Amino acid sequence: MMLRSLSLGVLAIVATLIGHYAAGIVSSPSATEHVPQEHIDIVKLEPISAPVIRGGKVIGYVVARTSVTAPAADVKAHKALLAAYAAEAAFRAIYEEKSFDFSSLRAAEVLELSRRIVDHSNKRMGRATVREAVIESLNFVTQAELRSRHAN
Question: Which of 20, 60, 68, 71 is most buried (most C-beta within 10 Å)?
């Protein structure tokens, strides 16, 4: 009886060791699967202000703060150019938009603006440098609000 318990204990230990060894082989990445990850930097842009024109009239302004992400090597080599093109792209994405109601944007519309900033930036850079555009804040100020602020 004691020999049976002892052999059962040894069998459990051996099975556990084999299981740990097998799990280590399965979960460890092989040399061919290892892909080094590219280091990405964030470039914070200066706030921009873009007029919103509807029916040929300025109805207000959008003030936005955005950031873009790009490979660290590109940021290091071309930060000023990257920031300028990304700021221009953010302005264009807002200024050229004719259908969004900036006073009550939906999440899908913000994502669309981000996508346009990436597309416009990369087009100007001549290659896919900008990976993501982050809209940190976006405020709409109507023409009437501006007038009332300046009147006080």
Answer: 68
Residue 112's pLDDT is what? 94
Provide the sign of the torsion angle of the four alpha carbons 98, 56, 50, 80, taken in this order.
positive
**CATH topology (fold) of 40-151:** Tetrahydropterin Synthase; Chain A (3.30.479)
- 122 vs 8, more confident: 122
The DSSP H or E segment spanning 87 is helix 72-95
pLDDT, one tens digit per residue, over 67-80 is 999 999 999 999 99
**Domain residue ranges of the chain, discontinuous segments joined by +:** 1-35, 40-151
CA–CA gap between residue 52 and residue 48 (Å, rounded): 13
Burial class (CB in 10 A: 0-12, 13-18, 19+), 95: middle
Number of residues written out for the chain: 152
Alpha-carbon distance of 109 to 105, in angstroms, equals 6
